[in-house]
Q: What sequence folds into this?
């Protein structure tokens, strides 16, 4: 009997010892109650409680938690029904407040987010709701964080997960977006055409300016060339005048022969001339060329070489005019 009683006492002692030793895992905090009253909060690790006096009250998760807010239909300020849902990220900062100040922490935060979501979205128009999600998130975060502060909870962030306008509104928005993009395309095309016309006009202007400058330069060059030609002609005329004044008529013969040859060349090059008539006064041209040779060499002209006539073959009579050399007109000398 004594052995059995001793064994029972040992078992009870072990139960009491192991019951008073508590191990708190990382990421959690336990509240300790003495006779049902909160006394303290134990951190992660091992803790020994007073047997039969102290016990574990609540086990509070101190890690960041994600709460899914159910989808609900909200009426916007312009009377459009929109289905909205969200997610909330919370962190418990005070385990005692989170355990004893609110009965159901997760449900309380979810309901609080849903009511404030209806308030915020209902005060905005549909276009603002669709385009200003960041503003909605910021307003919800400010309100919810202030409301959950006494509960020992920190709301890290709130995100709008989905916004679903009605189907007819979605179709109308699609048509509006298409019309807007077509309008932008037309405006962009018009702007491009305008820039192209401006560019072409600038190019035509620069081309006209360059052509005018080219014509002006060409006119200057032509005027300069004519001026030089006139100076050369005047110089040649002066030389001829000096030669005539000195008593030499070869200069006159030179100019006459030059004009004669040019006229004959133009007559031969005429496209309408089928037959070239050689003038009968060829001896005059030969005499003129002799005068040119005398002018160039400075001596008297040599008589032209004629082949000897054959006595058996009489020379044919001249058909049009005599081949005699014309007499050179005498120019009176000026004293």
A:
């Amino acid at each position: 009997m004594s052995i059995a009683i001793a064994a029972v006492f040992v078992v009870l002692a072990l139960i009491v010892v192991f019951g008073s030793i508590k191990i708190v895992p990382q990421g959690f905090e336990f509240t300790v109650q003495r006779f049902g009253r909160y006394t303290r909060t134990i951190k992660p690790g091992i803790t020994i409680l007073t047997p039969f006096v102290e016990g574990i009250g609540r086990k509070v998760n101190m890690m960041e938690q994600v709460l899914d807010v159910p989808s609900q239909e909200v009426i916007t300020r312009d009377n459009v029904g929109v289905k909205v849902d969200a997610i909330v990220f919370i962190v418990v900062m005070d385990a005692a407040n989170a355990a004893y100040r609110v009965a159901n922490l997760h449900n309380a935060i979810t309901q609080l987010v849903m009511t404030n979501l209806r308030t915020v979205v209902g005060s905005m128009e549909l276009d603002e709701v669709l385009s200003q999600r960041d503003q909605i998130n910021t307003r919800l975060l400010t309100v919810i964080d202030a409301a959950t502060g006494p509960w020992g909870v920190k709301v890290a962030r709130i995100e709008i997960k989905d916004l679903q306008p009605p189907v007819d509104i979605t179709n109308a928005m699609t048509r509006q977006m298409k019309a807007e993009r077509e309008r932008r395309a037309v405006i962009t095309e018009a702007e491009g055409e305008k820039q192209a016309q401006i560019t072409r006009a600038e190019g035509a202007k620069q081309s006209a300016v360059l052509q005018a400058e080219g014509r002006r330069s060409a006119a200057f060059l032509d005027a300069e060339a004519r001026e030089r030609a006139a100076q050369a002609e005047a110089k040649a005329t002066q030389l001829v005048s000096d030669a005539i004044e000195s008593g030499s008529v070869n200069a006159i013969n030179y100019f006459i022969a030059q004009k004669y040859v040019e006229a004959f060349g133009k007559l031969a090059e005429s496209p309408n001339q089928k037959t070239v008539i050689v003038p009968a006064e060829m001896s005059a041209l030969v005499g003129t060329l002799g005068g040119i040779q005398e002018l160039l060499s400075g001596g008297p002209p040599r008589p032209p070489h004629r082949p000897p006539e054959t006595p058996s073959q009489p020379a044919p009579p001249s058909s049009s005019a005599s081949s005699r050399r014309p007499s050179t007109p005498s120019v009176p000398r000026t004293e």
Observations:
- Residues 181-245 form one domain.
- Residues 51 and 263 are 147 Å apart (CA to CA).
- The longest helix spans residues 167-245.
- The chain has eight helices and eight strands.
